[in-house]
Amino acid sequence: MKFVIITGLSGAGKSQAMKSMEDLGYYCVDNLPPALIPKFTDLCFHAQGEIEKIALVIDIRGGRFFDDLFKSLDVIKNQGYNYEILFLEASDEVLIKRFKETRRVHPINPSGRIIEGITKEREKLAELKKKAKYIVDTSNLTSAQLKEEIKKIYIEGVKPDNITIFIQSFGFKKGILLDADLVFDVRFLPNPHYIETLRDYTGNDKVVRDYVMKWPESIEFVEKLNDMIDFLIPLYIKEGKSQLVIGIGCTGGKHRSVTVANILYERLKDKGHRVIINHRDSVNAFRE
């Protein structure tokens, strides 16, 4: 019997994750009091094969009942039932934005500031996060992308490291990325914008990619960039970082940055990393 506990920060996407698990054939229960987990697990196990996959959403909405979670997990482990934890989180800024957009109060601090509730919740969930088999940071994920991440883990059997790499191309003239951990400026590369036959294309088009990458400095830069990212990723994972945002910028965000971002995305994807790419300022240049 496959048994998954979905937990994490309020506003991080647990409800969407549960819907995704339902689509994958899991029998899902939301906000089950932790004290009932052993009995519920035993009932499912003895359901004569009718229930093979279970997903429970457990979080601090249970109030004081949440404190029973670790005791209940010890009980089912002693009973011989294996489980794994999927932990969802997001940055403070993104969580605050989501709460404000939905006009919700934070469940752990309903009469106070949202950020105070988030801080308290992070502290309360710290030990549970350490027990998680998978940690997914949803800060830069759409609902469709979160669903795809869950599919990769629980259907395709992909076991990525607990870090999601976001690559985003952008144009400096429209503003630098505010949430990037690393920003690389590729404005020193030859600009296709000044080639009339290339101006209306993007870095997703072969003709532009071929032009940008035909120069020795382009090839050398991409190789050095790739080496640097390879060096940094294990260090970020060791630090416990759950997401890495890499910005690649050129003047308009249409040609050079898109080309380099695509190449970096492809190389990291080929190495088995969990990578998502977005081209902020290039029309029709979005890729999954």
Automatic annotation (TrEMBL):
InterPro entries: P-loop_NTPase (IPR027417), RapZ-like (IPR005337), RapZ-like_N (IPR053930), RapZ_C (IPR053931). One of its GO terms (molecular function) is ATP binding. ATP binds at G8, L9, S10, G11, A12, G13, K14, S15. Keywords: ATP-binding, GTP-binding, Nucleotide-binding. Pfam families: PapZ_C, RapZ-like_N. PANTHER family: RNASE ADAPTER PROTEIN RAPZ. Transmembrane segments: none annotated. Residues 164-281 form the RapZ C-terminal domain. The gene is rapZ. This is RNase adapter RapZ. HAMAP family: RapZ_like. GTP binds at D59, I60, R61, G62. Residues 1-154 form the RapZ-like N-terminal domain.
